[in-house]
Amino acid sequence: MIKIIGDVMLDIWIEGNAERVSPEGPVLVIKENNKKYSIGGAGNVAVNIANLKVPCELYGAIGQDDPGKKLIKLFLNQEIHPKLNYDHSITTTKTRIIGQGGKHVLRLDKEEDYSNEVTVDCNENDIVIVSDYNKGVIKKDTISKLLKKTKYVIVDPKQSADTYDGAYIVKPNMKEYNEWNSVFSITDALKFMREHQWTWLIVTDGSNGAHVLCTTGEYSLLKEKAKDVADVTGAGDTFLSVLAYGISKDINVFECCKLACTASARNVEQRGVVPVTLNDLQKGVIFTNGVFDILHIGHLELLKYAKSLGKKLIVGINSDDSVKKIKGPDRPINNEDKRVKQLMMLPWVDEVKVFEEDNPHKLMKEVMPDIIVKGGDWTVQTTVGNELAEVRIFPRIEGHSTSDIIEKIKNEQ
Asked: Residue 44: pLDDT above 90?
């Protein structure tokens, strides 16, 4: 189970038109058209986790005031198990005034530091997200207490770095990291994270991407371009939620961050705080190519994997003439019409395109895929079209190839 501890807030959104300036002073007059409420802060992380169909519990503190009562009602519509303290002096509230075109005009905050303690009921198999907005729920000893119960502590920080010593993953944005450790560099970041005993450090930097470092020295800069940035509110919560979701599914941290980048890019394309969906974790067009002459388990597993990465899988196959040039005059065993029909019968394949050239580069430029998938005989560098899209390599399944099958048939004759 994923458990979230942090500062829970009520978000209020007041939308209206700003068509004139007040005669009482040089300020805009907003004519209110709509008012809505949503769960904010650490609560928004929980909403995202629940929206990804993962059981979660939320720990924090709210007051017994009207905003607190409003939050309780909002939780009734979510698949979240709130385990909150109701002894806060006030419920933290953020009121955003939104003008034409979704432009933020003003934000009004109502808050006080929480002085009591929030404890999390967790075990060694639980993943604990620490969503710290520095409003008092996360104390100097919160992390050390959590680490006595589980090693999977993932932090979105707002306090000094030593507050989170020993955490599994710490995810500051670039501004927060620079306040800790000056200008970012891989060498200094590795030294810094080792000083604080973090296994992973992920530094998000808006459109510049996310720097992902492991204490072993592994590093990657991951990027996902948004088509149009409408609103960055909640993008950090989306990244954090998808990261934890991936870890709960035993996905490699680098792959988790790729998913998180994809989801965050989709998030900022929408106005307001919009919870992530499983659909947001998928990219659009996935492309793979090959001869696909005699279908075998290796083909099927590769195609199944490729489809899991996106919404549409396009398979490029060599024409009969192209196959003869590459494989010899006895190939293909099945002509291109049969190969197209066989592939289209599979549940993972959405479209099949035949190309005449020796490689599918021309076809790729027409399709413009988000991800290219190739088998384990290839590397990213040797994959045709690697400059056009992200490349994923699917490990080769040994003992399964068309050539092996043909050779076995010949030997048995």
From this structure: yes
Q: Is 226 exposed, middle or buried (0-12, 13-18, 19+ CB in 10 A)?
A: middle
- The residues annotated with a catalytic role in the active site are 237
Provide the strand spans (E) within 166-252. 169-170, 200-204, 210-214, 219-222
pTM: 0.72
Distance from C-alpha of 44 to C-alpha of 8, rounded to nearest angstrom: 8
Residue 385 to residue 381: CA distance in whole angstroms: 9
- Is there a contact between 203 and 174 (Cβ–Cβ < 8 Å)? yes
Task: Give residue 236's pLDDT.
Answer: 84
CA 222 from chain centre, in angstroms, equals: 11
- Classified as helix, coil or strand, 235 is helix
Query: Checking phi first, is residue 385 left (phi over 0); if not, alpha (psi -120 to 50) or beta?
Result: left
Ranges in the chain annotated CATH 3.40.1190.20: 2-7+41-88+116-281
Q: How far apart are CA 218 and CA 168, in angstroms?
A: 15
- CATH code of 283-412, in short, is 3.40.50.620
Which pair of structure tokens corresponds to residue 89?
């002096």
> Has residue 97 got a pLDDT over 60?
yes
> Got the DSSP string for 118-175?
------TT-EEEEE--SSSSS-TTHHHHHHTT-S-EEEE--S-GGGGTT-SEE--BHH
Instruction: Round the CA-based radius of gyration of the chain to a whole number and report it.
Output: 26
pLDDT of residue 206: 84
CATH superfamily name and code, 2-7+41-88+116-281: Ribokinase (3.40.1190.20)
3-state secondary structure of 217: coil
